[in-house]
Request: fold
Amino acid sequence: MRRCRSWFLAVLSLCAGWAANPKQAEKSFQEGVRLEEAKQWKEAAAAFSEAILNDPNGAAYYFHRARVRYFNADYPHALEDAGSATRLDPNNGEAFALLGDIDNRVKGARQAVTDYTRAIELGVHTAAVYNSRAAAHTQLNEYDEAIADYTLGIKLRPDNPETLRQRADLYNALGRYHDAIDDYDQSLSLKADDPEALLGRGFCWGQLGEFHQAIRDFDTLLALRPDNAKALTLRGAADFRLNDNEKAIADFTAAMKLTPQEVYLYLARSAALVKLERHAEALQDREQAVKLAPDSAEVYLARGGSYHQLGQHERGLADRSRAIELNPQLPEAWFARGSAYYLLGDYDKARSDLAQALHLRPDYKEAAEVFAKAQKHLEEAPAVEARNAAPPPAAPAAPAAVLKPAPTEGNAQEHEARGRAFTQAEKYPEALAELNQAIQIAPNVAHAYNARGYVYLRQHDYQHALADFNDAIRLQPNYPNAYMNRAVARKALGDAAGAAADLKAFSHK
Reply:
């Protein structure tokens, strides 16, 4: 028993003596530093581990092993080592700065800010620590603090283009475009080929309406990176705002090849196609947008516009109703459906939708204008009904067997309303019968001709449709919906030039 106890104590003594070997620890540490400088992270970590084994109280050994483990993305073990370094040497500001970098990955930005602040309190006043704390503040939406830290970092290292660009990006996100451009200018003066700075500055110019300057930045960036989808997209948007729609379409198409699932690109290209009166192609893009984002109100709103432009009003109304279902807080959706109802002569529904648009956005000028027009039509209707209700002038008596009710404008409105209802239900023969009666009673009502022409259009009877749309425009030259419908009929009959002229007239009504 004594022999065993003596052997155990001897082993403990040897182990203790072997663990506390400062010279060997320092030798291993220096080797680790050499390997760290060569960016051989795993080998450096092994050397630092050997140093720790020989001297487990060396704070520097844990600090350096934490750093190489951090660079090797071994964040949990790096966190352990950094914690050991700060416990062994609580006044080591660099260790707290490193802990901040690691905590930003592991525990989050709030803990990182605490670590960086402690490092600064301990005298680490470097650009790196201020910039790192600024980035953490940005993640926490603490923008004033972030800008203050970036500013200190820039004062300490005014020759660092990265920090200037980071502050510029923050100004950009906050809508402070002039401040952002100043920083981007300085950043690009130090690093002229920085794609992120060129992209950011170009975006700012676009937000300020300086589209030519924006395009110059995007041109420079695309010369360096031809496959930059964001630059292509933003340049296309700038081209569109300058009404250079062919160039816009080319840029959006090129961006689509790189990011074919980007819904915005299909909506943007369709808008340019509409300006060029290429409505069928615009509809194709908008249908693709619906496939990619079936829960987005905006895509249905856009497609509904295409349906109306092509004379498919029921589908247009259905899409705009779907947009309202998906996002009842979207004033544009209520305005779009209200405008469609107005063009179709359903002024009561138009007024209701437009009132909702104005409730959601009281300064919605376009909605207010159409609402006023719908209100005027509704106010005029009772006067017409009163005139219709007045007894007709006395006429010579006639035998009771041949007396018939006199046709009135009120009768015509009733027939037209029933005709429109039958049209909505796709009961076209019944719709034609009612609309024929309306026109026979009141042959000078443009809306009735347009309604009957639309029924013919749905039945592919383009000649009769064209004749009715001609009459509607003759009676009411500023009738935008009739121009749109006539364009569809003319296109179907092969009159592309006439269709284009009608679409142009529609856009100016």
In short: The radius of gyration is 37 Å. Residues 1-19, 383-409 have pLDDT under 50 and may be disordered. The domain at 411-507 is CATH 1.25.40.10 (Serine Threonine Protein Phosphatase 5, Tetratricopeptide repeat). DSSP finds 28 helices and no strands in the chain.
